[in-house]
Specification:
about 375 residues, 12 helices, about 15% strand, four-stranded antiparallel sheet, seven-stranded mixed sheet, Aspartate Aminotransferase, domain 2
Length: about 375
């Protein structure tokens, strides 16, 4: 992997900062025991790390002051399932968007398929890539329970106006659930200012943690119904699962190694400065866009400027399947990227790439260099010239 040009950071950031690898290794060797289950020193110190990570993430997302409402899960998909299924009630109407990842689309579809809810999917502008908040406002009905939308598209990189949507939801008395898979650690997340009731995140992307760790923050007054039950390490004689957070959304032993990696990853991005990291990555994104946009036979999607954007570029080369371009980039140029529908089929319906099997997605990360970008531009130029 030392020589690879890795442009698949929207899937998983790679490599991780050295501090993440080091802390995971040292902590797990010395303190790899169950937190909160007993009173010996190692368990207490482990619980302190876990509690500290809850607080750090609560502050990063500007939750409303209770770190125990920051709960851990496998990833954003896991948390979105718990939140969506835990909030939905029989007869509810739910609003979502055409920008969503299957982490949102599939839970909603299953609930609609079994007759629990009705779903409206609001479109986005196929040229710019943004949802109009007024379209969400117009879609609200008397039985609308919640709006569920992503903060940032994993296909086209557009950062959505969640603050405006949150204000609309508050005025209408509708819950607002945000998929922060692509935004947590990349751009500002302010739950209080943005009117977000539940924010779901994953650790293995911009938060620089390992795979298998994620979570959610649920604001006070928003109570998510239990959807899973099990051990909590406290009040074991109680027959029902505990109602208070974090136990309400956690059961069994935590992924301690994942929490440790997430702890170190968040510390790293805070030390580097989220805005600094984002600006550097967007500089490279602009270089990439400017380098490929005028290449004959190359089409880019929603790449009109860097404002309210993450460093993600979707493109196609005329005459080639996206998967074939990805294979050539990998085999001939040692460039790793993502091709196809990127688990977000409705995005491709809107931008017109669903019938041509999606796009080639290049996503820049903290360790991408100018040399990596220039080699990617040259590779795309050479592939396009074959047609």
């Amino acid at each position: 992997m030392n020589d690879i040009i890795y442009l698949d950071n929207s899937a998983t950031s790679f490599p991780k900062p050295e501090e993440v690898y080091s802390f995971m290794n040292s902590f797990y060797r010395k303190r790899g025991v169950s937190p909160g289950r007993t009173g010996f020193d190692a368990a207490i110190e482990t619980e302190e790390m876990v509690s500290g990570t809850r607080r750090m993430l609560m502050e990063l997302f500007n939750g409303d002051g209770d770190p125990n409402r920051l709960t851990f899960s496998y990833n954003a998909s896991d948390s979105l399932n718990m939140i969506i299924q835990g909030l939905a009630r029989k007869g509810d109407h739910v609003i979502s968007t055409m920008l969503e990842h299957n982490s949102v689309l599939r839970p909603l579809h299953h609930l609609e398929m079994d007759g629990t809810i009705e779903v409206t999917y609001v479109p986005f502008d196929s040229r710019t890539g943004y949802v109009n908040p007024d379209d969400i406002k117009k879609a609200i009905k008397k039985n609308t329970r919640m709006v569920v939308m992503n903060h940032c598209s994993n296909v086209i990189g557009t950062v959505q106006p969640v603050g405006e949507v949150g204000k609309i939801c508050k005025e209408a008395g509708v819950l607002f659930v945000v998929d922060g898979s692509q935004s947590a650690g990349a751009v500002e997340v302010d739950m209080q200012r943005m009117g977000i009731d539940a924010f779901c995140f994953t650790g293995h992307k911009c938060l620089m943690g390992p795979t298998g760790i994620g979570g959610s923050y649920v604001m006070k007054g928003v109570e998510v119904r239990h959807t899973r039950f099990g051990g909590t390490g406290v009040r074991s004689a109680q027959k029902t699962h505990l109602d208070e957070y974090p136990y309400r959304l956690e059961c069994g032993t935590l992924n301690l190694l994942g929490v440790a990696g997430l702890h170190a990853g968040v510390k790293w991005i805070l030390n580097e400065g989220i805005a600094n990291l984002h600006n550097s990555e967007m500089d490279l994104w602009e270089r990439l866009v400017n380098g490929v946009k005028d290449i004959e036979n190359v089409t880019t999607y929603c790449a009109l400027g860097r404002e309210n954007k993450n460093p993600v570029l979707s493109l196609n080369v005329k005459g080639f399947e996206s998967g074939d371009v990805g294979t050539m980039l990998d085999v001939d140029y040692n460039i790793a990227c993502r091709t196809g529908l990127q688990c977000a089929p409705k995005v491709h319906e809107v931008i017109g790439t669903d019938k041509i099997h999606g796009t080639v997605r290049l996503s820049i990360g903290a360790f991408t260099t100018q040399e990596h970008v220039d080699k990617a531009i040259q590779a795309i130029k050479e592939i396009a010239s074959l047609r």
